[in-house]
Design goal:
Gyrase A, domain 2, Isoleucyl-tRNA Synthetase, Domain 1, Rossmann fold, 5 domains, 5-stranded parallel β-sheet, 4-stranded antiparallel β-sheet, 19 helices, RNA-binding
RNA sequence: GCGCCUAUAGCUCAAUUGGAUAGAGCAACGGACUUCUAAUCCGUAGGUUGCAGGUUCGACUCCUGCUAGGCGUGCCA
């Protein structure tokens, strides 16, 4: 598609240039020509509203401009263009010869799993940080959504020529993990029979804390009471982090998300970088003392209040290691960094970007995208409370467990990933768990996978009938004459530009939608036309090429979003 | 109060980033398996794109003002 766009672009540019030369168009320069893939074959294969855009400058009606452009395209000289029509208010509808359709099939045939990839990124290094949940409990649903989106974005960037990695920032230092240590200590002592103890304000109430504490008792009894309370809490904190982080890793692996780098906040704090940054901020006069704390002049960067960076107790607030962490990312040589934050961190976005600016880094070096909340909805419409600290939250694992009961483990992960991906990042997602389970068999993800399985089945059948696929050189694609066949190829041709725009717009949801559309063209074709026909071997061969192409693109797309590619269902 | 997000078919969401007649799935109704897999297909029905203005050849998309919902607004992360 891109190649053909460029070719048509050049031809139309030539026509416009000619019109300018002979004075039929009075405009200062040749404009960039926008193309919109047509919605219906009646509008040709490629359409451009370029004449509409020129109307004002040229002081001519759009239709007349379109006529002028059309007049200067020599169809004999460019056999790739079958016809040009002017429609509507002045659209130029370009009808291409069948050759370009066949070129698409040839490209897929040759590139196979690389069809859809390109080198737009030129090897530029990108880091995407996502999930980064506190190691104080199991991953929740929003983390699951972030995991699916982040994982797919990395795949997308790598597909279009970037060198992208997945990174997880472990918040293994600071107040939250202290609270974890305290909470475990309370549950530990309760398990040993101590009464009148309560989880402190802001502590962790989840059952998993109690279970963990009881496991400690089972293993070591009351040994840890010999330690001082501070020592004990610190110890529980450390083993708690280790255990819970381990659980998170297991969940993520189960969800088929594999991080390349795990960064530790504790390590950042101990690296000395936070101190360097504070020193640098002090030199730049970004800091001042007040109320016994050290403040950063966030108002200089347009925020409505300054913020504390060193507390009265001498500890850094989380801004400092966070800024240091981003400095560290820069030092590691990433051209661009994308952070995916949950909705509860949106207040942090503006400040973090300002800190990065204060570090002297370019404004667009760091991009922060919010993965909006996920509401778990019951079939009666009530929302489930997912607050981590109230202890009543729905974990990613429990979601997959429920789905797995209905459709099995492999498809459970497929369905969950698909549901998380099919919506744009910035929309709030209502996830009706019961619906996802009860409708599991009519799920869109199966629709796509089934299309792939059917493709495979055709080749299986061909094998049994001893029909051998000829090499492409020996196949006459002109046998593909059905409109539904041409529509399928047109859709296949769109795939590379979908991949590219998904990456550039950080719009992972476009891949599932595309695959659903492609499947939506394949299934009707399958029902209407037989592929294997021993009475018409030439057409059979041509159709096998088409089916193979559909199969390839479906598989490529499914791999991109981390969903399994079944050969039979 | 201020900031961010959202509002499209009964429900959940799309809309090639400003293009032609706003599209899918689910739910509803009626049909199709002697066929390469019926987890499929064909047909019917469903709309003042929250409201009011503005920008232009053209607006679901951009701007302004409303309305409703969600989230954020800590010397937590």
């Amino acid at each position: 598609m891109d190649g053909i766009k460029e070719e048509i672009n050049n031809i139309l540019e030539g026509a416009i240039r000619k019109a300018i030369e002979i004075g039929e168009l009075q405009i200062s320069e040749v404009p960039t020509i926008p193309f919109s893939p047509t919605k219906t074959p009646e509008h040709g294969d490629l359409a451009t509203p370029v004449a509409l855009g020129l109307a004002k400058q040229a002081k001519l009606p759009p239709k007349q401009i379109a006529e002028t452009i059309k007049k200067h395209v020599d169809l004999d000289e460019h056999p790739i263009i079958r016809n040009i029509e002017i429609a509507g208010p002045g659209f130029l509808n370009v009808y291409l010869s069948n050759d370009w359709l066949f070129d698409t099939l040839q490209a897929i045939y040759e590139l196979e799993e690389n069809y859809g990839t390109c080198n737009k990124g030129m090897g530029e290094r990108i880091q995407i940080e996502f999930v980064s949940a506190n190691p104080t409990g199991p991953l929740n649903i929003v983390s699951g959504r972030a995991a699916a989106v982040g994982d797919t974005l990395v795949n997308l960037f790598n597909a279009v020529g970037y060198d992208a990695i997945r990174e997880y920032y472990v918040n293994d230092a600071g107040g939250q993990v202290e609270k974890l240590g305290e909470s475990i200590d309370i549950r530990y002592r309760q398990a040993l029979g101590e009464e009148k103890l309560e989880i402190p304000e802001g502590g962790y109430q989840g059952d998993y804390v109690q279970e963990f504490a009881e496991a400690i008792v089972d293993e070591n009894g009351d040994d840890h009471l010999k330690l001082s309370q501070d020592e004990r809490i610190a110890y529980f904190r450390d083993i708690g982090i280790e255990y819970l982080l381990g659980q998170q890793k297991v969940s993520l692996e189960r969800f088929r998300v594999c991080f390349d780098v795990w960064s530790s906040e504790k390590a950042i704090r101990e690296s000395g970088k936070p101190d360097e940054i504070i020193e640098m901020f002090r030199e730049k006069k970004y800091l001042y003392e007040a109320d016994g704390a050290t403040w950063f002049r966030m108002t200089d960067f347009g925020d409505d209040k300054d913020c504390v960076v060193i507390r009265t107790n001498g500890e850094y607030t989380y801004f400092v290691p966070d800024a240091a962490y981003h400095r560290d990312k820069y030092d590691r040589g990433f051209h661009k960094v994308i952070d995916l934050f949950g909705p509860d961190h949106q207040g942090h976005v503006f400040r973090l970007k300002n800190f990065v600016k204060a570090l002297g880094l370019e404004d667009d070096w760091l991009e922060v995208d919010i993965i909006q909340q996920v509401n778990l909805v019951d079939s009666d419409g009530t929302r489930l409370d997912m607050s981590k600290r109230s202890g009543q939250f729905f974990t990613l694992d429990s979601l997959i467990d429920e789905l797995a009961d209905a459709v099995g483990e492999q498809f459970a992960v497929d369905v969950a990933r698909y549901f998380f991906l099919m919506r744009a990042n910035n929309t709030h997602l209502d996830f009706n768990v019961e619906l996802a389970i009860t409708q599991a068999n009519e799920n869109p993800v199966f629709y796509i996978q089934y299309a792939h399985a059917r493709c495979c089945s055709i080749f299986q059948q061909a094998k049994e009938q001893q029909i051998k696929l000829r090499s492409l050189d020996d196949i006459d694609l002109e046998y593909l004459t059905e409109p539904s066949e041409h529509e399928l190829i047109r859709k296949l041709a769109e795939y590379p530009s979908i991949v590219l725009s998904s990456a550039e717009g950080r719009e992972a949801h476009r891949i599932p939608h595309y695959l659903h559309e492609l499947s939506g063209l394949f299934h009707p074709f399958y029902n209407q036309h037989r592929v294997l026909d021993t009475d018409n071997m030439d057409r059979t061969q041509a159709r096998l090429i088409l089916i193979q192409s559909v199969q390839t693109v479906l598989a490529n797309g499914l791999r991109l979003i981390g969903i399994s590619v079944p050969e039979s269902m």
